[in-house]
Amino acid sequence: MTSSSRKYALEFLSYVNASPTPFHAVESSKQLLKKAGFIEIKEREPWAQCVENGGRYFVTRNGSSIIAFGVGKKWKPGNGMALLGAHTDSPALRIKPVSKKFAENGSFLQVGVETYGGGLWHTWFDRDLSIAGRAMVRHSNGSIVSKLIKIDQPILRIPTLAIHLDRQETFTFNKETQLFPIAGLAAAELNKTAADNSSAEKSGSDGDFKPLALMTDRHHPMIIDRIAKAAGVNAEDVLDFEMILYDTQESVLGGINDELIFSQRLDNLTMSFCATVGLIESIGDEKALDEESGIRLISLFDHEEIGSQTAQGADSNFLPAIIRRLSSDAATAFEETLIKSMLWSCDMAHSVHPNYPAKYESSHRPEMNKGPVIKVNANARYATNSPGIVLTTEVAKMAGVPLQLFVVRNDSSCGSTIGPMLSAALGTRTVDMGNCQLSMHSIRETGGAHDVEHAVKLFKTYFNNFSQLEPKILVDSTT
Ligand SMILES: [Zn+2]
User: In the chain, at which end, N or C, are there fewer CB atoms within 10 A of the end residue's CB?
Assistant: First the structure.
């Protein structure tokens, strides 16, 4: 492994380890962007005063999606943009609104969870799990703020059944009743409940009407205590939360030559990280935007794994609204910009699996560490077409980064990405691509360590050269 590809792989490991939820992934990207001089702007405010040619900015929505961009010094509304999209979410188990459960015989504390996205749920058994997310908490001054929470200790576990008690050939289970974490033994909670009840009574004794049961009644008080402690507030000031479970085992380099990455959430924090670093590197130099006539932009969306149709998903107005605000001078500038732009929709792809080669189309078997994979699908489950492939190949040639191609077998099901929906909403040329990995949607996936640098270099070169390359690739024009 070269020292440079090792550096990118290690930087990615710290990013993914700090980002168990989309909220944390956005925060991790924000930290990198701020360090590189990007300025935070808000959708709630007008931008006329704060967004200038030559500037670098980012904006978040719901704390779980983020758009960052650099404006060319020669930018004019109506010019094209180099866009790159990815997603911040991964399949996970989420704590239910009322999660407090006791095992039927009363011996175990259990926590009710809901499945989020299409996880390979059998991989969540026997892992050392904890919780992370965001809590809405009340500060002493009365304001209510959102706090990022990440509890590092393994406090939860979903136990498998001993083989002696059920010799199943294939492992099957009920997702409601058997994918059910334990949080310890009930005896501990019983002692705790007494103390907690007094505080619950206290907060109820002011005669306040309570439209919902207290958080400490809906969830195990010890879980609320942990969250309150992490947020630096009292338990009664935790008003609500969105928490998911994550594996406390850290992501690491693996393989006999450190050529692999063993990690949770490779899909799609690999692309989120590479997008952030690619953009930063492309405009890291102070003069980098001097000759730029376009805008270089990344958008990292939450909710891809559940169909993207939310206020901050790729199917929302988040990206169109930002593009419109940046190109709103003339009546048709927004539409002109869309048609001169390109979107790289970046999401992880499937590496060939050595034990299941027959599952892959024989001429399209991507391999790890051999570069990003362009995904093609005749039925537009991926948005790639020829002009997109040509431009990507030109960029890859300049970057010295190898590329691979993927199509799914005709007799196989196919995934999809944010590419088709964004290209339909924007009318912008789109390419679907991403690094390849094994075990997508497992709690512990495997990716290629060298591919992190491949993607960063490719993205950086795309941003650096899009405005020059775009006018040369002609469609819908008479020549
Ligand atoms: Zn994905």
Answer: C
Confidence label for 255 from pLDDT (cuts 50, 70 and 90): very high
Confidence label for 475 from pLDDT (cuts 50, 70 and 90): confident
348 CA distance to ligand 1 middle (Å): 6
CA–CA distance, 264 with 443 (Å, rounded to integer)? 5
CB atoms within 10 A of CB 172: 8
Q: Are the beta carbons of 265 and 30 closer than 8 angstroms?
A: no
Residue 354 token pair? 């050595």
Is residue 84 pLDDT above 80, yes or no?
yes
| Greater model confidence, 203 or 35 | 35
Each residue's pLDDT tens digit, 161-185:
998 998 888 889 999 999 989 998 8
| Cα(340) to centroid(ligand 1), Å | 26
- What residue ranges define each of the domains in the chain, with the CATH number in brackets? 3-90+264-472 (3.40.630.10), 92-247 (2.30.250.10)
Distance 271 CA to ligand 1 centre (A): 9
List of E strands, 80-162:
81-87, 92-102, 108-116, 129-138, 144-150
* Averaged pLDDT, 331-345: 92
- The pTM of this model reads 0.91
Ligand 1 centroid from CA 208, angstroms? 45
Q: Which SS3 state, helix, strand or coil, does residue 415 take?
A: coil
Residue 137 alpha carbon to ligand 1 centre in Å: 31
Residue 305 Cα to ligand 1 middle (Å): 7
